[in-house]
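ENTRY TYPE: paired fold submission
RECORD: A
CONTENT: sequence, then structure tokens
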Amino acid sequence: MHDHGRPSGGDRNLVLAVFINVLLTVAQVIGGILSGSLSLIADALHNLSDAAAIGIALVARRIGRRPADSKFTFGYQRAEVVGALINLTTLIIVGLYLIYEALSRFADQQPIAGWTVIWVAGIALVIDIATAVLTYRMSAGSLNIRAAFLHNVSDALASIAVIVVGVLVLIFEWYWTDLVATALIAGYVLYQGLSMMRETVRLAMEGVPPDIKLGEVRSALAAIRGIMDVHHLHVWQLDEHRRALEVHLITQAEGVEGIALKTQVRQMLAKQFRIEHSCLELESPDELATVHDCRPAN
């Protein structure tokens, strides 16, 4: 039984990570405005998206602990998918905006305060590393937390790039490097957002898990003694970790034999395909196949 009122140690780490990332964003925006550095503001927006990602992960963890009820019979774990869609959409919009700003400023490059850029980016680098440490231990068991951890690592790399820009501005007055760094950061933000969007959309649309081939599932079912045919086969993911299956099986088994057959099928699905929730409908050979789909909506 979960205690929804008291945050776990992992939750406290996430709250702390959100807090310091928001503070870092404010500091970077102020530093970017004072120094005239667009790349510093780009890194700030990237950090803000990371704070949002961690915040969404925190809320999803809290909601996901709620038990199944009459409204959500599979539970609330898919809240993480909804949050991820919101976060990734925002991330992509931010990336496109930064590219637009970088291109518009190429024609009118402004002087940049190199030391301000270096100091603010240096502080950001330390905070990015600290945040990555906070989320690292939790990343092994959660794709969403792992994504947040990787975001913080990429933030650290972006901060290094901004520091390099500050050095080049101080030594050579190469102000154009700020715009190049902005474009590179924006490009990486878009790459992350679009690459993660595919997996998130697949989950949202209840797609087949990427490591499962329907043909292999069908063959494994047909190979079980007593099963004459397989049809209306559906496999999808309830959330990041749980999988479900619905299938109609043509068999002469009924009564006790039918129960034993279902048990054998479920054991095979769990062992070979990690499918622990299955809806099996047994049909006799002369029964008219129906289009009934017993998969509950989720």
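RECORD: B
CONTENT: sequence, then structure tokens
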Amino acid sequence: MKRIEIYFSRFLPIVLLSISSLGQQAAPAQQTVPTPGIPSTGFTGLDGYRARRIAVFTDDYGQLARYREANAALRPPAAGENRVVFFGDSITDIWKLEDSFPGKPYVNRGIGGQTTPQMLVRFRQDVIDLHPKVAVMLAGTNDIAGNTGPMRSEDIEADLASMAELARAHGIHMVLASLLPVHNYTEKSKDFFAQRPMARILELNDWIKKYCAENNLVYLDYFSALVDDKGMLKKDLADDGLHPNAAGFKIMAPLAEAAIEKAMK
């Protein structure tokens, strides 16, 4: 009897494990397919952001749904109305235009986190179809960061040029803004700063300025007004090193207004 007990104590777990394995092999239809991994960018915060955006990237890459209802509700410009669309990423998205430009027919069509290929997808719906006289575009910092994957500078430039050409074809005066500098003066600014090498920001700004000069477009230079003596965004203008606060937008507003007036002419 004792030998039987020893036998079962030794071999019963193995038998049960084998039966369990057979059961799993017999029902492959119940197994879930793992979600394909997203290559790491080397930045935990950016990796988390990209993982959370899978639904956007697969279901509505340009985020056309964001302003669909607002666009449908927006009436055509009245006679003599100088409508302006501010177009871009989160820096535009968070800008309270009604505070900076009270009484002006200025429309905000910024979407946080977007890159230029995403903006190109929605350019017709969120700019052309609104029939503005002027479009002010601030874009490219998220491309450099790699929000939608690695981006070559020449591809960012191609997207900006495509949108500028679309605007021209539809009689819209385009204002192209420089990218803003970034800083790493605070703890929460360090990732944003590391993701956006200053050399690439300067390179893209040089291209934007040159492109505007060669194509008779207005270049809006935010960079020079916001940079400090170390070549970074002034500390008191952005808590996270990237997004302007009220003080930052207070500097940017008259620069944008002057660029709009120049484009109108």
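NOTES ON RECORD B: Residues 78 and 219 are 27 Å apart (CA to CA). The chain has one domain: 44-73+83-264.
STATUS: closed
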